[in-house]
Amino acid sequence: MRYVFFILFICVMIISGCKNKLPIEDDISSAHFMLVNQDSAVVEFPDYLRGKIAVMGFIFTNCPDICPLTTNNMQRIKAELEKENIKDVLFTSLSFDPARDKPFVLKDYARIRNIDLKNWQFLTGQMSVVDSIKKKMHFFAVAADTSYSEDGKKYYFFVHTDRISLIDRQGRVRKNYKGSTINIGEIVNDIKQIM
Amino acid sequence: MLRIILLLLLFLPAKSFIQIKDAWMRPAARGMNSAVYFEIINDGSSADTLYAVKSDLAKLTEMHETYQRGNMTGMRKVNNVVVKPKSSFKFQPGSHHIMLITMQKEMKQGDKATILLRFKRSGDIKVNVEVKM
Ligand SMILES: [Cu+2]
User: pLDDT tens across B23-77, in order?
Assistant: First the structure.
């Protein structure tokens, strides 16, 4: 009998341990940021995510290598969730290059990748607002690594945090992943845990 | 002696030992950027150097590499890539890529294009590239 209790005790420990595996990384629930989406509609972030689980990627559309990997990975996460019939998850891609990423640029970026925008928004906004979000979410991006064309035009790129964030229904960041190399199974399991 | 020289000449000519495999690029709207990826296979007994890339797809074409610094990532220009004898070198996502800056036209999934790779020994190699996700 004592064995049964012991085993039960271990099981409870393991289950509660799993529940606590996703601590709160950043609580952004009390913040209100005014952004615009790919259709130039005003979006209040993170308010519009309230009550939903959100997968959020950070991108700049001039990025040809890492950010497309992050975006592709979000498409794979979305496909996997659809396959498992998990609804109620919103996707958000925030541009940290609002100077160049105007709504129409983001719309093109989504169109060329056949992204269904039903539960996915691409967000941009005023530089100061985007900077505040970066600060709040401990995301870093510095303009660097410049190229010049023959006519002397300057092209800049960012050194930036490589990130996809998982946000719970209360607007709290529960986990940050490396966006370009995220394990799809891992985040899908994490999403199930906070359902 | 002449025969030996002739025989040597048979082996020396600039036959390209460089092969380019699985070339593809990312989709991009006009005015945006894209990246081209492929594998360079060097079957020869000497190294070869990729020193330039030409393309009329974009306003500016460069060789880049992505690098990691802790949780941060960035990319920088590289001037050339040396492919050692009997080995291969991969341009792949998250690593080396041909950077197409300011696309002159839109490239959608399934579209095809050519770029020109310039090698020190093997000369110019035309590469067919297909747009993939
Ligand atoms: Cu690049």
Answer: 999 999 999 999 999 999 999 999 999 999 999 999 999 999 999 988 899 999 9
Q: What CATH superfamily is the domain B21-131?
A: PCu(A)C copper chaperone (2.60.40.1890)
Report which residue type is found at A51: G
Could you tell me the residue ranges of all domains in chain B? Answer: 21-131
Beta strands in A46-195 (DSSP E): 53-59, 89-95, 120-124, 141-148, 154-161, 164-167, 172-177
Residues A160, B99: C-beta atoms closer than 8 Å: no
Q: Give me the residue label for tokens 């004898």.
A: B85
- pLDDT, one tens digit per residue, over A91-115 is 999 999 999 999 999 999 999 999 9
* CA–CA gap between residue B18 and residue B92 (Å, rounded): 18
Across the interface, whether the CB atoms of A159 and B108 are under 8 A apart is answered no
The model carries a pTM of 0.87
CA of B35 to the centre of ligand 1 (A): 7
Local structure of A46: helix, strand or coil: coil
